[in-house]
Specification:
heterodimer, A: 250 residues, Rossmann fold, 7 strands, globular, B: 440 residues, Uridine Diphospho-n-acetylenolpyruvylglucosamine Reductase, domain 3, 2 domains, five-stranded antiparallel β-sheet, 25% helix, 24% strand
Chain lengths: 250, 440
């Protein structure tokens, strides 16, 4: 249960190797969380060891975002281990490269299946559980790329735009149930996912995103922008004419 | 679904709130899974003891009230939903007083048993459980059992936070009184050591004692206090013609429906503390029961003054001989300038056999702290460690933020309690947010 001062006991990370996701879990564990489920495709042992050293009990589960038919089982297994899920962080996703997507449309569709489709099934299964237990927060990672989709990365951006809308709708559906959805909209994050790419203006880091997310969970925020100044900036960006917007270099 | 919080107004969760008839309770209990059920009285536990996210919460205070007294012995039998206020209103004019009252009259009898509440007379009379003669409990299988102090389940229920079953009735011994007034001595102390010294040396001369500490006083004045100590006044201490057993406390003020966060800050609390300390000159007075025992009941909904973020009450006890831990905590609070409106120190006497009962012989300190204060979580966690290390504990009826790990150290009889609970409620029908949070 989230306590009076905002600390939680249990957390499920979907995308158990995500840099941002693990940074969030680490902070929650330092703040008192003791039951952690890392649901990942492939090895998350190293992260598990680190979290155990911080005092958490850790359970590893197989999770493939592209196989929605398995997502219900993942949530059930997480509940079996952790009991009530105080926080579910959906941090899985692929960035990919716009030019490659245009060259290989099938790969573009597959990225959509992960970045949007996977979140729809995992999010709905998680939300069902949170509603039953009457408390808990689902953290969904949108992106400024989805706030207004740019020509330079519109496959990824479209998935994020869809995800952002989905998460807001899901949050509204959960309204009054005690459970909630928090949408996090980071800007460009300098990390493993963007390795080798030159950082965009107002770039942030996985640690900063995690700090802002944990603060948002504590305060009960519905939407978190990282950095915060992206919020007013994107209010302006959304008003730019198409003729200007399509020339955005990236 | 109704969103519920404790008195501290933090961490709301929704539950199905029901006010059943007594005859409906058995069916309600047996049908309560998967999310279970917990009883709720008047919601004065500060944290999440009477919340059950996604489950059922039974509004015991709303159920029918019954009571009777054996005029020969003063043993009262009453339904669990009756409040101390109801009981006092009924009993005081007849010359009886409840054996133990907490700092508010607005707790139910069931809640008083489940938290094994204590009052200003703990050093002499122990806690509520010590005065109980029997209990009626509906257990997870739906059966109603009458328990006496010979039963293990009785002492798992006294202080058991409602997790062994639903208390429907209790019998307890009252104390005879000649008047509804208190003869009270007020005294001030210079600092914490002076407070402890005075309480140790002279507390036993009074049935009821408590110290209010000015936590914002620093340096040589750290821990300066106002001691109020009293006894039930005798008939001959009242002016002739007075109605000796009159009892009609009214709450004369209501807190505003909304207050800004941060209204109680270092500045306002310091001003209040200064004024309170200054006005508490040494004197002896005769006052009514209510202002002596329940000064805060004077203001309805005083918890709203803390604003929307609410507050936590931190109450711990350390055994006698561990005054150093108490001193360490008070000096850390004072040096950090933690804002606590109303900090209360009390010397405890013997505890009850309640397995999860809070009191043990020693010192208890209770602080009310606005939940928004920076660094609060870490500070209180540090205190938890010190308290557990000293062989002390945190009061579950007040807790809203502790972690499960320290619980076995604080409550060494926890395994025994768990075993009994497991035998009467193997599936965990009786559950609360507190139980989930602390893996009780």
């Amino acid at each position: 249960m989230k306590n009076a001062l905002g600390s939680v006991d249990s957390v499920l990370l979907l995308g158990g190797r995500s840099e941002i996701g693990l940074a969030i879990v680490e902070r929650l564990v330092r703040d008192g969380a003791r039951r952690v489920v890392l649901a990942a495709r492939g090895e998350a042992e190293e992260a598990a060891v680190r979290l155990k050293n911080l005092g958490a009990e850790v359970c590893l589960l197989d999770f493939d975002a592209a196989r929605p038919e398995t997502h219900g089982e993942v949530i059930d297994s997480a509940v079996e281990f952790a009991g009530d899920l105080d926080v579910v962080v959906a941090a899985f996703g692929v960035l990919g490269d716009q030019a490659s997507y245009e060259a290989d449309p099938v790969s573009a569709a597959r990225s959509m299946a992960v970045n949007l489709g996977g979140h729809v099934s995992a999010g709905l299964f998680a939300a069902r559980r949170l509603r039953e237990q009457g408390h808990g927060a689902l953290v969904v990672f949108s992106s400024v790329a989805g706030v207004r989709v740019r020509r330079a990365n519109f496959v990824y951006g479209a998935a994020k735009a869809g995800l952002d809308g989905f998460a807001q709708g899901l949050g509204d559906a959960l309204h009054g149930s005690g459970a909630r959805v928090m949408v996090v909209r980071p800007g460009f994050v300098v990390g493993r996912m963007t390795e080798g790419m030159p950082p965009a203006p107002m770039a942030t880091t996985p640690g900063a995103v995690a700090d802002a997310t944990v603060r948002g969970l504590r305060d009960g925020s519905e939407t978190v922008w990282v950095p915060g100044k992206l919020r007013p900036i994107f209010t302006l960006m959304r008003a730019l004419p198409r003729s200007v917007w399509r020339r955005m270099p990236r | 679904m109704t969103f519920l919080t404790g008195w501290g107004r933090t961490a709301p969760t929704p539950a199905t709130l029901v006010t059943p008839r007594t005859s409906e309770l058995a069916a309600l209990v047996t049908g309560a899974l998967p999310r279970g059920l917990i009883a709720r009285g008047l919601g004065r536990a500060y944290g999440d003891a009477a919340q059950n996210a996604g489950g059922v919460v039974v509004d015991v205070a709303g159920m029918e009230a019954r009571w009777s007294i054996d005029p020969g012995t003063g043993v009262v039998t009453a339904s669990a939903g009756m409040s101390m206020h109801d009981l006092m209103t009924a009993l005081v004019p007849k010359g009886w007083f409840v054996p133990v009252t907490p700092g508010t009259r607005h707790v139910t009898l069931g809640g008083a048993v489940a938290a094994d509440v204590h009052g200003k007379n703990h050093h002499v009379d122990s806690s509520f459980g010590a005065h109980l003669r029997s209990l009626t409990l509906i257990t997870a299988d739906g059966t109603s059992r009458t328990l006496t102090p010979e039963d293990d389940l009785f002492w798992a229920t006294v202080g058991g936070m409602g997790l062994t079953g639903l208390i429907t009735e209790a019998s307890f011994a009252c104390v005879p009184i000649e008047t509804s007034r208190m003869r009270v001595d007020v005294e001030r102390t210079r600092d914490l050591d002076h407070t402890l010294e005075l309480m140790t040396a002279t507390d036993d001369g009074y049935r009821y004692t408590v110290a209010w500490i000015d936590l914002l006083a620093r340096g040589s004045r750290m821990g300066r206090s106002v001691l109020t100590r009293g006894d039930h006044a005798r008939r001959d201490e009242l002016p002739p013609g007075a109605d000796a057993l009159a009892f009609a406390p009214a709450s004369r003020l209501a807190a505003p429906p909304w207050a800004p966060n941060g209204l109680l800050n270092r500045l306002t609390v310091r001003a209040f503390n200064e004024a309170w300390y200054a006005k508490s000159r040494e004197r002896t007075i005769v006052q009514d029961l209510a202002p002596f025992f329940h000064p805060l009941d004077f203001v309805d909904g005083w918890n709203r003054v803390y604003g929307s973020r609410g507050f936590v009450q931190y109450q711990f006890v350390v055994p006698s001989g561990e005054e150093a831990t108490l001193r360490r905590i008070v000096s850390r609070l004072s040096e950090r300038g933690v804002v606590s409106f109303l900090t209360v120190l009390k010397r405890f006497g013997a505890g009850t056999p309640g397995m999860l009962s809070f009191p043990l012989p020693g010192w208890t300190l209770a602080l009310d702290i606005p939940a928004g204060q920076a660094g609060l979580a870490g500070l209180l966690r540090e205190f938890d460690e010190w308290v557990a290390g000293a062989g002390g504990r945190i009061y579950l009826a007040k807790d809203a933020r502790m972690r499960a790990e320290l619980l076995p150290a604080m409550y060494p009889r926890l395994p025994e309690w768990r075993k009994i609970r497991e035998s009467v409620d193997p599936e965990g029908v009786f559950r609360s947010d507190l139980a989930r949070r602390l893996s009780l």
